[in-house]
Amino acid sequence: MSIDKETVGKIARLARIKVTEDDKEVLAGELTNILTMIEELNAVDTKGVEPMTSVVQMQLHERADEVTDGGIPEKILKNAPEETAGFFVVPKVVE
Amino acid sequence: MTALLKGETGDWEMVIGLEVHAQVLTKSKLFSGASAEFGGAPNTHVSPVDAGMPGMLPVINKECVKKAVMTGLGLNAKINNVSVFERKNYFYPDLPQGYQISQYQHPIVGEGSIEIDLPDGSVKVVGIERLHLEQDAGKSLHDQHPQKSYVDLNRSGNPLMEIVSKPDMRSPEEAGAYVTKLRAIVRYLGTCDGNMDEGSMRCDVNVSVRKPGAELGTRCEIKNVNSVRFVQQAIEFEARRQIEIIEGGGVIKQETRLFDTSNGTTRSMRSKEDAHDYRYFPDPDLLPLTVEDGFIEDIRKTMPELPDAKKQRFMDEYGLSHQDASVLIGERERGDFFEKVAKGHDAKLASNWVLSELLGALHKAEKDLKDSPVTAEQLGELIGLIEDDTISGRIAKEVFAEMFGTGKNAGDIVEARGLKQVTDTGEIEKIVDAVLAENPDKIEQYKGGKDKLFGFFVGQVMKKSGGKANPGMVNDLLKKKLEA
């Protein structure tokens, strides 16, 4: 599978990462290499093999329904770019 | 109950499917220990997990799993022993992780169905496509500042069940009945409080139109419609909009639209093309969720009687009409209240008093049943007084009004105000004679053929007795004397 410059631009936009035109060219090549390498796995016949989700046999960890966290707005807001009256303040986003 | 819409080129059929987001009733969030309670000062119900801090790991709340399974059972649906959490990626300031943890290809609950009760008394089965667990996003406020948005993450990470119906509904009434029944089921189960005002139940409505029997048309999705009435208005408007476009030679574009509650219209959300490229993939922080058959069966054993079973039982056991039973089972508390009133009394009388008198008075006073000034036991006592002829139905209404206003017992009010029905023949006869003596002209007219005057005589006697004379006895006596 080959990734072109346009696809790199789309992925970057969706991830909100700024990528220059020059870098797009380079990244397209690198991503294509990565995908080509992974495609080699397709050669393996996995018919009837359950997907492995963990290297050790583990169950999903669960917790009881108790309130054990929160009540720390000052910590939560500590790296807010801007705050007012306990809210995060961000550039206006209206759809 | 397919309601067809008339267009210029003939009849059109609406095809409606609903996605309902119901917040799981828990103390804490789906993947963190912060409070899931509605409200609170901004950003106080937030843990570092909900704020999307790097390095934080989600740990699932067992209660959410239990309640999702229970809801699935309530929807007569298949519970999947293995389900998978995936990341739905999109960018928005109230989604600090940059992705919503949701279930995509492998939801916890698969296909099911519920019965909906329609206004004409008929019942229709609506299919359920799936139910999955996912996180809620935070809340953005756009009206506080001209250039800025304010973000409160209290809701971020709250547990939601997304319940997706099949496109089985054909009219706004059916969609309304579906939401109403779904709400009743989750409230009976205690898996969601069903509070639409506080957003613990929200609907996305999918609407398309077609000529009856034709292929499905292109659908539009109307986001976040938050009451049964708005769901119906949105469908009505959207269907007409689509018909106008098609009949005008246009084509429906699949898109997401918003419902404007101020004027009952929908408008396009003008989303960017990329907005729906969510790039789902399994969340590497979470192993697949497994629920064993034993766990499911244990939950099944704790299930309360559900609305449809209760409705059937009310019809079989108490002989109530489908209509009355449907209203009584609408809320679990209402059904319980009725059963308490009916205990040891005539069930139809009890049903009438709960439905028309009590619910009517509560509605007028803008009160909930749980705040009723008249308890079920008190209403039962009042009905007992009617049954043993201590008071007439008319006097009972008077007594009820006083009970509702003061919270006093029926017997005490009847005693204090001397409202006991007069059933002594001699006494009633005296009043009847007096009324007849006062109206010799009317007797002439009656005998001359004006039958309707009989009601006048009854009214006069009842009035003279202060409403206390037994109406049946008054009728009999009057008839005897007038025909004599």
Describe the model.
The complex is a heterodimer of chains A (95) and B (484). Chain A has 95 residues and is an alpha+beta fold. Chain A has 3 helices and 3 strands. Chain A has a two-stranded antiparallel ribbon. Chain A is flat. The mean pLDDT of chain A is 91. The model of chain B has no long low-confidence stretch (mean pLDDT 92). Chain B folds into 3 domains: 296 residues, no CATH class; 113 residues, no CATH class; 58 residues, Arc Repressor Mutant, subunit A. Helix content of chain B is 39%, strand content 19%. Chain B is of the alpha+beta class and 484 residues long. In chain B, the strands form 4 sheets. In chain B, strands 1, 2, 7, 8, 11, 12, 13, 14 and 15 form a 9-stranded mixed beta sheet that branches. Chain B has a 3-stranded antiparallel beta sheet with strand order 6-5-16, with no helix packed on it. Classes of the chains: A alpha+beta (95), B alpha+beta (484). The interface between A and B is large, with 38 and 53 residues. β3 of chain A pairs antiparallel with β10 of chain B.
Essential attributes:
heterodimer; A: 95 residues; alpha+beta; Histone, subunit A; two-stranded antiparallel sheet; B: 484 residues; 3-stranded antiparallel beta sheet; 15 helices; 39% helix; 19% strand
